[in-house]
């Protein structure tokens, strides 16, 4: 185990999207996720965790101790099967196998160490609870998803071409949010970090990933997405020095003075931060 | 399992969050939540704040403070567990789209006591753990962030002191049917406080009745709890 982190952290990430779809809803034909009762947009926890994994894979290239277990095919940098026999696990007594396997997995894979994992070690799934906990991100204001019809000057099959007598055009649909600012709350537990060996280096890599994750996730669907603000509340104490909800309440997001109508850029918002209580340091990472 | 059967004073903790999913065991693939927090989820929230092998939490009552409302979310999930022998999972090969029927904007008051277990040493006593819990809950301290059924549904919590009035539960009465009471864990194989379920871990159920927003929870040894 390397030196695990010694502080509790609660963080607030503000990110925005311009003319893109931050997170499609499979239940609604890939429309941007929306909370039907409030009209606010949603981005799921797993969507953000995927981006952190992809960033770390890109940044570290599967380096020792920074490999990613749950990979996305989009990043094919090194799929060389190491296929090494884990003597360290094999040699152990039956009762200690599970623990050895847990340690091995936490040591090798950044995402296991950070987010945890359900693992088939022992009789049935032994679990690793990771120190980092994301929640659903929600938009600050209501979002209005737009639907755009687009055309393609080609068809996929012969049959389609024949049907159109050689006109060869197809229509598609694309959904975007013209602009939205999303807010996500997250938590990092020092005691759980001690169990998985999540270290200060891992933590710095995590902040780096959260700040830069959209920079390497460009695509036709996403439009312009950026991390705008990352507020980190660092508690002196492992268990924390203040309730998380009181810290999150210190961050006040208002419409900028003189900005009217629907918000269309980050300039339409003003983010104010109150003073953190004793024992808590506010770090503005971005 | 009882240390000496002595129980602490009654603690009251208000917990709330944007979403919650207290998954019904019969609907675990596409998760569907119970209408109300289960005793086992309430225990999990308390243990996130304070737990030692020397104590165990006994949830006595759960007050529902917010109307029961629902929200459906479909996500991409991975359909397999990790194995140290594999070199990673390609999400495209293992992708499963699963919906979840979650609760939204929930708030509860958990009424619970703690008691000593057989693992309590000579230096352990109820007063010590009572004070520890009060200190932590007052300061908003926690071992890890408590959550409402699933870790993505983080919970905020605040202690309701003895002299403070209880928040008013909603005026809803409903038979909730059989509800998960808790999993009777077999902790013999635990290492470093990391629990792996074995075949001896068994669920138990009780007949849950919401009366004017209050769910009374039977004691573990009670005949009302069925294995």
Automatic annotation (TrEMBL), chain A:
Pfam families in UniProt: Cas_Cas7 (PF05107)
The record's listing under InterPro entries reads: Cas7_Csh2/Csh2 (IPR006482), CRISPR-assoc_prot_Cas7/Csd2 (IPR013418)
Question: Can you tell me where the transmembrane regions are?
Answer: none
Q: Which GO terms describe its biological process?
A: maintenance of CRISPR repeat elements
Q: Which NCBIfam families match?
A: cas_Csd2 (TIGR02589), cas_CT1132 (TIGR01595)
Under which name does UniProt file this protein? Answer: CRISPR-associated protein, Csd2 family
Automatic annotation (TrEMBL), chain B:
Q: Which residues form the signal peptide?
A: none
Checking Pfam families in the record gives:
Cas_Cas5d (PF09704)
One GO biological process term is: defense response to virus
Q: Which GO terms describe its molecular function?
A: endonuclease activity; hydrolase activity; RNA binding
Answer yes or no on keyword RNA-binding. yes
The protein's Enzyme Commission number:
3.1.-.-
For this UniProt record, the keywords arranged alphabetically read as follows: Antiviral defense, Endonuclease, Hydrolase, Nuclease, RNA-binding
Q: What does this protein do?
A: CRISPR (clustered regularly interspaced short palindromic repeat) is an adaptive immune system that provides protection against mobile genetic elements (viruses, transposable elements and conjugative plasmids). CRISPR clusters contain spacers, sequences complementary to antecedent mobile elements, and target invading nucleic acids. CRISPR clusters are transcribed and processed into CRISPR RNA (crRNA).
Family as reported in the entry's similarity comment? Belongs to the CRISPR-associated protein Cas5 family. Subtype I-C/Dvulg subfamily.
Q: What is this protein called?
A: pre-crRNA processing endonuclease
């Amino acid at each position: 185990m390397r030196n695990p982190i010694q502080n509790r952290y609660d963080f607030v990430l503000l990110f925005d999207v311009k003319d893109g779809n931050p997170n499609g809803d499979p239940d609604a034909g890939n429309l941007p996720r929306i909370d039907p009762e409030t009209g606010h947009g949603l981005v799921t926890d797993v969507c953000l965790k995927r981006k952190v994994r992809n960033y770390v894979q890109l940044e570290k290239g599967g380096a020792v101790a920074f490999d990613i277990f749950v990979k996305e095919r989009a990043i094919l940098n090194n799929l060389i099967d190491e296929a090494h026999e884990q003597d360290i696990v094999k040699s152990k007594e039956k009762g200690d196998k599970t623990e050895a396997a847990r340690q091995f997995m936490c040591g090798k894979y950044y995402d296991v160490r950070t987010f945890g994992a359900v693992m088939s070690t022992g009789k049935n799934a032994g679990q690793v609870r990771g120190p980092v906990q994301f929640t659903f991100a929600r938009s600050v204001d209501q979002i209005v998803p737009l639907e755009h019809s687009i055309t393609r000057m080609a068809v996929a099959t012969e049959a389609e071409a024949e049907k159109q007598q050689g006109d060869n055009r197809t229509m598609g649909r694309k959904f975007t949010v013209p602009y939205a600012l999303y807010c996500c709350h997250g938590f990092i537990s020092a005691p759980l970090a001690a169990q998985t060996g999540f270290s200060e280096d891992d933590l710095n890599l995590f902040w780096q990933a959260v700040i830069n994750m959209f920079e390497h996730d460009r695509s036709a669907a996403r439009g312009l997405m950026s991390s705008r603000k990352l507020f980190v509340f660092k508690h002196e104490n492992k268990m924390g020095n203040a309730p998380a909800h009181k810290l999150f309440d210190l961050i006040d997001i208002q419409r900028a003075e003189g900005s009217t109508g629907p918000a269309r850029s980050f300039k339409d918002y003003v983010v104010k931060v109150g003073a953190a209580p004793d024992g808590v340091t506010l770090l503005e990472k971005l | 399992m009882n240390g000496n059967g002595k129980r602490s004073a009654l603690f009251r903790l208000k917990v709330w969050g944007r979403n919650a999913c207290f998954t019904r065991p019969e609907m675990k693939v596409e998760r569907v939540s119970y209408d109300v927090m289960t005793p086992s989820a309430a225990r999990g929230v308390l243990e996130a704040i304070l737990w030692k092998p020397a104590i165990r939490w006994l949830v006595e009552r759960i007050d529902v403070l917010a109307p029961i409302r629902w929200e459906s979310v479909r996500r991409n999930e991975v359909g397999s567990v990790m194995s140290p022998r594999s070199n990673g999972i390609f999400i495209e090969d293992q992708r499963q789209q699963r919906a979840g029927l979650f609760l939204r904007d929930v708030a509860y008051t958990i009424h619970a006591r703690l008691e000593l277990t057989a693992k309590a040493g000579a230096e352990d006593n109820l007063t010590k753990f009572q004070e520890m819990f009060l200190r932590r809950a007052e300061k908003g301290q926690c071992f890890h962030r408590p959550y409402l059924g699933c870790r993505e549904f983080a919970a905020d919590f605040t202690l309701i002191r003895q002299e403070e009035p209880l928040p008013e539960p909603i005026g809803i009465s409903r038979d909730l049917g059989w509800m998960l009471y808790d999993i009777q864990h077999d902790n013999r194989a635990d290492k470093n406080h990391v629990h792996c379920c074995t075949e001896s871990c068994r669920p138990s159920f009780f007949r849950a009745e919401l009366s004017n927003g209050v769910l009374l929870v039977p004691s573990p040894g009670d005949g009302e709890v069925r294995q």
